[in-house]
Amino acid sequence: MKAVLVSVVALFMSLALLVSGSAMLGTLVALRLDMEGVPKLLLGVVMAFYSTGFVLGAIYGVGVIRKVGHIRAFAVFAALACATTLAHPLLVSAPAWALMRLVVGFCLAGLMTVTESWINDRATNDSRGKLLGVYTINFYMASAAGQILVGFGNPMEFVAYTVVAMLIVLSLVPLSLTQSLIPTPPSSTESMGWRRLARQAPAGTTGALASGIALGAFAALAPVYALQAGRDVAEVAWYMAFSVFCAVLLQWPAGWLSDRWGRLPVLTALLFTGALAAVGTALLGTTSVIALFGLSGALYALATGMYPVSVALANDQLPNDQLVAACAGMLRTYGVGTMIGPLLGAALMGVFGDPALFVFIGLSLLLAGIAVQYLFRASDAVPLEEQGEYVTLGPISTPVLMELDPRNEEFEEHHPGEPAEWDLADKLEMMVIDPEQIEPLPDDEGTEPDPDHK
Fold it and tell me: What is the distance between the alpha carbons of residues 102 and 123, in angstroms, rounded to a whole number?
């Protein structure tokens, strides 16, 4: 396990730089648009374009990697994301920024696909569960670090966007210097249709959608809410960082409880408790800093805990050989939720005021909890002894990472040090001509050539 972790350190460093830059940019965009006086509904539309781009990138980015290879694809995605980030302060316009968010989301999904497929290739059956846990911690800590960096800049100045571009470009360095063999190209991941997924695992699908709505709305609009509540940019940065950090604290307790109480009761509890935290934030967030930080942190942690519990619940309803396809479908369901959240949340903020964001999140989680508890309980309840393995997952990833899930019975182990089928070293070796293998050609009369002839 130690050798495997050492072999992927560079990949985790690249991923951390990417995630921190993306998290920083998302908060900067939300704050800048609000400072520019952009209407709330239009602001929500702009923020939702990022989720659209990420979903498209998770679907079509694999094709780019398969065509040109991992390192070239990574360089292309990083260059596009960097250039787009630097264009933000040059063209401050809601339609332009919506297009930029789409491009950045697409590129980040492609970049994460490269790193995740590389991590998959280095994993073994004994290490992939632990690698997935390290991946989750790395992701949330990097996201929190990116939020903190927002406090050191000014969303109205170009310097902050330059820092984001630097982080994205620097992510090329660890990956380019890694000595790990180039992995096999990721295959196109089959996704289970939404109707089939909702029919076979309705509670899990509902939980994934509710988690996406809550987290999408929070990530896009909570910085605006905090800014309008009288907090300065530095306080907003720490507010977002604290909320993300809280997500790490609840991941393992949620799994431990679901192993002992059952997936369905824990998912229901997460949904109802999250609804209470959201309503509490709407009522007390503008009057108390402690209440704002504490309740928002609890909401974010509960919402992130819903996704892995939902996946585990869906996995209990489906055969293990359908895990990857089901998880891909769950990720897309979550992605749809991250599009809906900013749109509806921003629209309600524009009509009823900023606290309406958390009222909307609370109602969404409440309705999902009622559906899970009273509509799907009879069909989705699984006895404790028949439950599958619980795995800590972060919802913001690509379907490629799902192949690393220890529950995936079709995982093909690639031993560290074993060249991949299309490894660059193999290609270069094929291009080198060995003089000893060259046979002399006969002359025109069919005789052997004169060795002294030049």
Answer: 32
Cα torsion for 74, 77, 78, 82, to the nearest 10°? 180
Residue 439 has pLDDT above 60, yes or no: no
**Alpha carbon separation from 420 to 4, 121, 122, 182, 424 (Å, rounded):** 16, 9, 11, 7, 9
Convert the pLDDT of each residue in 103-116 to its tens digit: 999 999 988 888 88
Average pLDDT score over the chain: 82
Contact 26, 51 (CB under 8 A): no
Is the pLDDT at 441 greater than 60, yes or no? Answer: no
Residue 175, pLDDT score: 82
For residues 285 and 355, the answer to whether their CB atoms sit within 8 Å is yes
- Look at residue 135 in the predicted model and tell me its pLDDT: 83
- Pairwise CA distance, residues 343 & 346, whole Å: 5
Write out pLDDT tens, residues 164-175: 999 999 998 888
- How far is Cα 377 from Cα 382, in angstroms, rounded to an integer? 9
So what's the pLDDT on residue 130? 73
Percent of the chain with pLDDT over 90: 48
Q: Is the pTM of this model over 0.90?
A: no
Query: Three-class SS string for the chain?
Result: CHHHHHHCHHHHHHHHHHHHHHHHHHHHHHHHHHHCCCCHHHHHHHHHHHHHHHHHHHHHHHHHHHHHCHHHHHHHHHHHHHHHHHHCCCCCCHHHHHHHHHHHHHHHHHHHHHHHHHHHHHCCCCCHHHHHHHHHHHHHHHHHHHHHHHCCCCCCCHHHHHHHHHHHHHCHHHHHHCCCCCCCCCCCCCCCCHHHHHHHCHHHHHHHHHHHHHHHHHHHHHHHHHHHCCCCHHHHHHHHHHHHHHHHHHHHHHHHHHHHHCHHHHHHHHHHHHHHHHHHHHHHCCCCHHHHHHHHHHHHHHHHHHHHHHHHHHHHHCCHHHHHHHHHHHHHHHHHHHHHHHHHHHHHHHHHCCCHHHHHHHHHHHHHHHHHHHHCHHHHCCCHHHCCCCCCCCCCCCHHHHHHCCCCCCCCCCCCCCCCCCCHHHHHHHHCCCHHHCCCCCCCCCCCCCCCCC
- Check residue 120 and give its pLDDT: 74
Q: Is the pLDDT of residue 420 over 70?
A: no
Between CA 432 and CA 180 the distance in angstroms is 22
* pLDDT given for residue 403 in this prediction: 66
